[in-house]
């Protein structure tokens, strides 16, 4: 394969069918800088773009030097067609809040359980709720992600760039559909398990609503959520609509994380064809430590190129200053497109 075909993100800019682009990797490798620059390139290419961070410890606001929120997309200052948003989909919510969302008329504070099987009221309530929550792994994140997808449908974005959390969180996000499948099956079994207990309880809700009705609504809402996530999963597996960009630095731990990410994405049938190798040193003759570090980096760069010979691989030099603000991002954008040769290590 020719070198100019392997390097750069031009293949992503040229693919007009893409709707979702996920950017991920190990923490601290430059995911936010890369995703922000890619979103900038897409917007300058004529697309209406949303960049959204799903990282609980996001740096998106710092990167653009601008405040974003989780309520609605905010136009990026100084750029046309680009909007920003932050959304922590990993915040855990209690089932009380979940029930409130299912039926606003229900006061979560009124959901109480009388004593049974030797437990005190609070203990019984907490035990029951905890077992339901723990029976559906990922229910909190899945519910948040489902709400996020639904809320974004009303906006007419051509492309959404996801600035994701570090690898472990991202893989959980991509695995929500299978988690929900297992969780709903467990919830069904729990429903049978607690049928007898629920029948004996009185005053479970203050408005005397049938106890089983709440449980039915919880399950119905989970089924609805499952359909939404399945729709998301279908789009994720379509390489014409979704792709993933891995960002790494030429060090062992980052390379290991990249290998794990590529393997899991293949397992989930999600397209990935681009790898950004960031923070690469191009040393001079006077810096002994820089030459030593560059020699180490080159070893890992060679391994990445050999392992992923069919990928578009882009080498990005380590920057003298932090990339912050639209002007800095626009300068960084060029580094994602030009062909970079491997650093030559002075003897």
UniProtKB/TrEMBL annotation:
One of the GO biological process terms: tail-anchored membrane protein insertion into ER membrane
Subunit structure: Homodimer.
Source superkingdom: Eukaryota
Molecular function (Gene Ontology), one example: ATP hydrolysis activity
E.C. number(s) listed in UniProt: 3.6.-.-
Binding site for Zn(2+): 287, 290
Localization terms from the record: Cytoplasm; Endoplasmic reticulum
Binding site for ATP: 26-33, 251, 278
Domain ArsA/GET3 Anion-transporting ATPase-like: 19-336
Function: ATPase required for the post-translational delivery of tail-anchored (TA) proteins to the endoplasmic reticulum. Recognizes and selectively binds the transmembrane domain of TA proteins in the cytosol. This complex then targets to the endoplasmic reticulum by membrane-bound receptors, where the tail-anchored protein is released for insertion. This process is regulated by ATP binding and hydrolysis. ATP binding drives the homodimer towards the closed dimer state, facilitating recognition of newly synthesized TA membrane proteins. ATP hydrolysis is required for insertion.
Lineage, top ranks: Eukaryota, Sar, Alveolata, Ciliophora, Intramacronucleata
Key words, A-Z: ATP-binding, Cytoplasm, Endoplasmic reticulum, Hydrolase, Metal-binding, Nucleotide-binding, Transport, Zinc
Pfam families, sorted: ArsA_ATPase (PF02374)
Active site, per annotation: 55
Entry's family note: Belongs to the arsA ATPase family.
Protein name (database record): ATPase ASNA1 homolog
One CC-aspect GO term: GET complex
């Amino acid at each position: 394969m020719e070198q100019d075909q392997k390097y750069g993100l031009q293949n992503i800019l040229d693919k007009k069918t893409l709707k979702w682009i996920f950017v991920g990797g190990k923490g601290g490798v430059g995911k936010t800088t890369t995703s922000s620059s890619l979103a900038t390139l897409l917007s300058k290419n004529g697309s209406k773009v949303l960049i959204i961070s799903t990282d609980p410890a996001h740096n998106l606001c710092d990167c653009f030097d601008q405040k974003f929120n989780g309520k609605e997309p905010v136009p990026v200052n100084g750029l046309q067609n680009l909007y920003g948003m932050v959304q922590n989909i990993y915040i855990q919510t209690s089932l009380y809040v979940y029930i409130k969302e299912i039926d606003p008329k229900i006061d979560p504070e009124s959901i109480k359980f009388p004593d049974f099987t030797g437990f005190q009221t609070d203990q019984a309530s907490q035990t029951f709720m905890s077992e339901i929550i723990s029976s559906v792994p990922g229910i909190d994140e899945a519910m948040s992600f489902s709400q996020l997808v639904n809320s974004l449908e009303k906006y007419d974005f051509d492309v959404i760039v996801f600035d994701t959390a570090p690898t472990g969180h991202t893989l959980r996000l991509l695995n929500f559909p299978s988690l929900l499948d297992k969780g709903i099956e467990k919830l069904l079994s729990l429903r049978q398990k607690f049928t007898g207990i629920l029948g004996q309880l009185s005053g479970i809700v203050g408005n005397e609503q049938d106890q089983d009705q709440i449980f039915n609504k919880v399950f119905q809402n989970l089924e609805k959520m499952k359909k939404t996530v399945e729709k998301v999963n279908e789009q994720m597996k379509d390489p014409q609509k979704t792709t993933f960009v891995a960002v790494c630095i030429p060090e062992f731990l980052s390379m290991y994380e990249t290998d794990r990410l590529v393997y899991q994405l293949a397992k989930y049938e999600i397209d990935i064809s681009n790898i950004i190798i960031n923070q690469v040193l191009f040393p001079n003759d006077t810096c002994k430590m820089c030459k030593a570090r560059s020699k180490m980096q080159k070893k890992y760069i060679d391994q990445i190129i050999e392992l992923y010979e069919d990928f578009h691989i882009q080498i990005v030099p380590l920057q003298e200053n932090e990339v912050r603000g639209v002007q800095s991002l626009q300068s960084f954008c060029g580094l994602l497109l030009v062909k970079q040769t491997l650093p030559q290590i002075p003897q």
